Amino acid sequence: MQQSMTMYPGPHWQQAATPEAVGWSTDLLAQARAFSETISSAAVMIVQGGVVVDAWGDMNRTFLCHSIRKSLLSALIGIAVHTGDMGLSKTLEELAIDDTEPALTPSEKQATVADLLTARSGIYHPASVETVGMAVTRPPRSSHAPGTFWHYNNWDFNALGTIFEQETGTRIYDAFQQHLAAPLHMEDYDITDFAYSGGPASWHPAYVFRLSTRDLARLGLLFLREGRWDQTQLIPAAWVRESTASHAALGPNSGYGYMWWTGTRQGLFPHVTVQEHCYYAAGYGGHYVIILPYKDLVVVHRVNTDIPEESVTAAQMGWLLRLILAASGEGELGEEAHAPEVQEGLRSVCLPHDVAIVPPQSSIPVERAAFSGQWAGLWEGVVPHILVVEQITPDSAVAVFAWGMARQWNIHQGRWTRVPARFVDGALQLKLQRPATVTYRLQSDGTLDATYEGAWDWGRATMCRMC
Questions:
Q1: Are 349 and 460 in a shared domain?
Q2: Contact yes or no for 214/189 (Cβ under 8 A)
Q3: 345 falls in which pLDDT band (50, 70, 90)?
Q4: Which of 139, 266, 276, 360 has most Cβ atoms within 10 angstroms of its Cβ?
């Protein structure tokens, strides 16, 4: 629409008089909001054409951004490349970048800035602020040459922060305020609210951001408009296009850019289809800034991850985005999207009254101890599931496998079973009586990738820690 190409918020966002006034359905947006209330959504903001279509939750509260910080730094690097302060082809050797012992090898120092931006440095040195999952899934040192293998690697992203400050002579937070927060009129940004986070594992600290939902939406709109804000080109348009293109293929129709996630069709999120190339910034626990250029649309989703058990899976985000797109008039919800179990969520899952988690002994290897606790997810984005790993021994574990209602799958009551589990090739494996085998594998982002293989059915889920 012609108007959407010129609309920008001033000091405050402009909200549509009604969703119908901009072509959206109030009733279907209510369904999206109702679903978000069954998961851990703390705030959702939907912006189309530079105008707020709908929003709910804490718009002005500053939440931890987690790994969204990386996409923010990518924007600043684009500005520095444009001014000549940074070069993508420079190697770590040229930049004199090293780390704690065991220090970087001569081969590792041949990694370029571009390799780090695309998570293909081949440097698997311990990093500041990495999860247990990242540590245990990190490839061995020197197992891949620079530029040849994609691995989501906090060392790359943290070292880029060091390189940015070294080459520009400016702190990340000062640069963010100067180049983005101030010209975008961010309402809640406070430079005193930020701090670096590091430790003895690495010389390169993480750069922690806390931003509000409505301020992240401004960043999303800036990228939607290819770096232009009203009459000013804040980020080179060529950089926006290049950084949000797929430089590494992660699966069918999904990829990774310069610290942005990309996808089209079914490759953006589970259980939702987008019509053209889209991209998003993502942070641990369910923080997302999603840009759909073909819809002139930005969707921001936040979770209060200051509470450790609060999280939203990628599958849940996919269902929410599907409901949002349906409210915009795109696609059909279908029977399953209206299903009561999606609305009831994890509240329909039954657990035994005597469930108890015994902390692992210090003798248990860390990669096995990391499974201890309570995890939640949705099988195929539909069936609510909770796994409780109650006790871990050196070779086995005791777990509760529980599920909730999914009426279209003819599951009308939540149930649970307590079963022994064993470790197989680093994964936790359960044998159910159906018969079925369920395998949980720890991922670098701290989630569990779960697969269910039965005689008559199969399923997959992404599990996030509840406690």
A1: yes
A2: no
A3: low
A4: 360
Is residue 114 pLDDT above 60, yes or no? yes
Write the CATH number for 357.
2.40.128.120
Tell me the per-residue pLDDT of 15-46, one tens digit each, with 9 for 90 and over: 999 999 999 999 999 989 988 988 889 999 99
Residue 429 to residue 423: CA distance in whole angstroms: 6
Distance CA 132, CA 208 (A): 18
For residue 404, what are the domain limits? Answer: 345-465
Residue 61 and residue 72 in one domain? no
Q: Distances from the Cα of 407 to the Cαs of 91, 107, 115, 139, 335, in angstroms?
A: 56, 56, 47, 42, 11
The candidate with the shortest Cα–Cα distance to 72, out of 196, 202, 199, 181, is 181
Peptide bond into 352 cis (omega under 30): no
What value does the mean pLDDT of the chain take? 90
Residue 357 and residue 393 in one domain: yes
More confident call, 339 vs 25: 25
Give domain status of residue 4, yes or no: no
CB 88 within 8 A of CB 80: no
User: Taking the CB of residue 5, how many other CB atoms lie within 10 A of it?
Assistant: 10
Split into its structural domains, the chain has a count of 3
Determine contact, residues 222/209, Cβ cutoff 8 Å.
Answer: no
Amino acid, res. 5:
M
For residue 280, what are its two tokens? 């998003």
| Residue 143 CB-density burial (10 A; 0-12 exposed, 13-18 middle, 19+ buried) | exposed
From residue 204, how far is each of 126, 129, 162, 199, 256 by CA, in Å?
10, 10, 6, 9, 23
Buried-exposed string 431-440: b where 16+ CB fall within 10 A, e elsewhere = eeeeebebbb
pLDDT tens readout for residues 395-449: 899 999 998 877 656 676 778 999 999 999 999 999 998 788 999 999 887 889 9
End-to-end C-alpha distance for the chain, whole angstroms:
46
Contact 204, 76 (CB under 8 A): no
- Helical H segments across 169-259, by residue range: 172-176, 213-224, 237-243
Of 463, 459, 430, 460, nearest in space to 448 by CA: 463
- Cα 371 to chain centroid distance, Å, stands at 20
